Amino acid sequence: MDTLHSLSVDGIRIGLDDASSEICFVSHAHSDHTEAFRKNRKIIASEETFVIMGREPQAHHLSMPSLKLHPAGHMLGARQISADTEGGKFAYTGDFALHDSFTAPAAEIIKCDALMIDSTYCLPSYRFPNRASVLRQMRGFVKENEESIIVFGAYIRGKAQELVRFLNDECYLAPVVNAPAAKICSHYEKCGVKLDYVAAGTPEAEEAMRHPFVAIMPSSMVNFQFGSSLSDAYGREVKTAVATGWATVSKFPVDGAFPLSDHADFKDTMRYIYESGASKVICANSNSENAAEYLRSIGINAVAKGMARPAQTTLAEC
Ligand SMILES: [Zn+2]
What we know:
Blueprint: E1 6-9, E2 12-16, E3 23-25, H1 35-38, E4 42-44, H2 47-52, E5 67-71, E6 79-85, E7 88-92, E8 114-118, H3 131-144, E9 149-154, H4 159-171, E10 176-177, H5 179-190, E11 198-199, H6 203-208, E12 214-218, H7 224-234, E13 238-243, E14 256-258, H8 266-276, E15 280-284, H9 288-297, E16 302-304
Parallel strand pairs: 2-3, 3-4, 7-8, 8-15, 9-12, 9-13, 10-11, 10-12, 13-14, 15-16
Antiparallel strand pairs: 1-2, 5-6, 6-7
Helix pairs in contact: 3-4
The structure holds zinc ion.
C-alpha cells in the first residue's frame, strides 16, 4: 500500500503531516504531526502552530494561490488544507473536531470532490457522550473533592491548556502546571488566549501547594500509585483524573476518567463526509483500513491510506 500522504499542486509535492517531501503541511502542533519541523522542512502551517512550536512563522502557501487553510477545531492553530487540482477540489483534514473547544473554534466542513480524512474514530463503536454533560461531570468531580489535591493527567501540548481554561472558566481555579506545560501556556498567551495558571517550581506554586490545589501533569505520570506518593508527600488526600476520548473504550488507573475529546467521533466524521459532498473518501492514519471497509459497506467510495506517522495508540498522543 502507498503510505505517502501528499498533494501535488502546480508540479510541487506537498507532504500532508508527512515529512518525506521538501515542503510539508503541518496540520497542528501535536508531536505525532510535527516531524517536518524536526527535519527542518519548508513548512505550511498556521501562525499559531509556528508560535506553539517556538518557531518564526513562514508563509510558503501564500505563493500558491490554489492552496487554502481552514479551521480544524481540535487544538489552537489546527488547520485543514484544500487545493484546486486538475482532478477537482481536494481537502485534507488532519485531526479535527466539529465542536468549539475552550481554545479553538470548530472545524469548517470543506465542500470538495476528494476528501482525505482522519479516520481514527470512523467506526460506529466510537461515540463520545454529550460534551456539556462530560463538562458537568468534571465540574462535579472538582467540587466534590475541593478539600483534596486533584491531579489531571493531560498531554501537555493542547489538552493541558484546554484543562487550564476549563478550570479557570468553570471552576474559578488557577491550576499548577509543570514547566513544559507552562511554556506551551505562554505560547498560547502570545496567540491571545488568556490562561490563568501557576508554574510549578515558582514561589507562587509553593504557596498554592500549602493548601488543597489542582494540578495538571503529563498523562503518562498520573495513576493511583502517583496519587498515593503525592498524598504521602503532602499529607492530604489526592484524587487523580484524565480527560480523553479514549476513556470511552479504555480503562485508566485513576479516580475519574472523563471522555472529553478534541476529536470528531464516528457521528461527526460521518457528518463531515456527507456534508463535504466528496465523491471519493481517502481514510488516513489510524484505523484507515477498517474505516474504509466500513464506508464501502454503506456505499461510500472509500480507500485507505496507511500511516504517514506513528499510530495514535496512547493517551500521551491524544
Ligand atoms: Zn492531534
